[in-house]
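A student in our group prepared the protein record below, which I am reviewing. Here is the record exactly as it was handed to me.
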Amino acid sequence: YYSSTYASGNDASDAPLRFIIIRHGERVDVMFGAGWTQRAFDTSGRYHAFDPNMPPSLPHRTNWLDYDVDTPLTAKGLSQSWNVGSVLHRYNLPVTACYSSPAFRSIQTADRILEGMGRKGHVALRLELGLFECTSWYARSPINFMPDSELINGGYNIDTRYRSQMSDLRLLENEYQYYDRSKETMKKIIKLHRKTGGTVLLVAHAPSLEVLTRHLMNGQPRPERLAELAGKVDFCSMTVVERESSSKPWQFRYSLDEQANQGIWQQQLQLQHSNSAVIAPKNQSSTAIVSTAAPAPAPAPATPSIYQPPVTFTNYLAKPANSAQQFYLYPQQEAFPPYFVL
């Protein structure tokens, strides 16, 4: 199903290419419930915020009830997204292109990230159908995406010349088909940027961190576990994957800092484990364990083979030194993309 290196070509002139893949920010329906539109809109479709965490305004939509399923960000979600852009700007990761799922919450997140970077007027949003979530998850509530005209009238910088790499979405696709669609979408986007390289922002959904990168790391799809894996991904969580050229393998980044990348992990990823081991993330395809005391044996295989000690990652680069964040790290067979929240 997947190649060993997933190179899209072997041209020596290929430029270094990096993808920042991020989940959208906090969404209104999660915070205020599925019936929030009945409280936020009057019978004529006029919007009013009924809580300080509601967005201050929303673009006009022909059918305002479409916001029920195609939900916007909360005020906190808008702030989260802007802050992500600000941090990426401070660490000199200028986005050269931006692709967004057509879901409005993803579009808002992408827009605010670019605004936080000072790039909103320079990088137009490319709306890509292939970045949307698994369609079977919307079987009971089909989603109607906002047209470009309404988004532009709402102040969003949309690239109207861009044509989605996926012209339509299969209704009621299963999770395995979602993996496959995501793989094909990623291949096409990589091809568009193979010569020019740069930093490409992909703003989508919680499972996107898994389905857009799984094949790049030679992994097999895990459709039966996708919902569980996606449930671990918080709002505005991101993963960063990059390669030097198409002849080189893809690698995950574990921090925003080039020089301290390895050192921070070896010093700060402390496994709460009896043999005091530290993960040394050379490459996600070959997770290594380095002992800080006596040499530690590899964990005994389990069924399923998942090693789940909690890991504390103190990100000095994006948060105060005393601020820690939790996630889980798995061995090669079950590896989930390393992700962090700024």
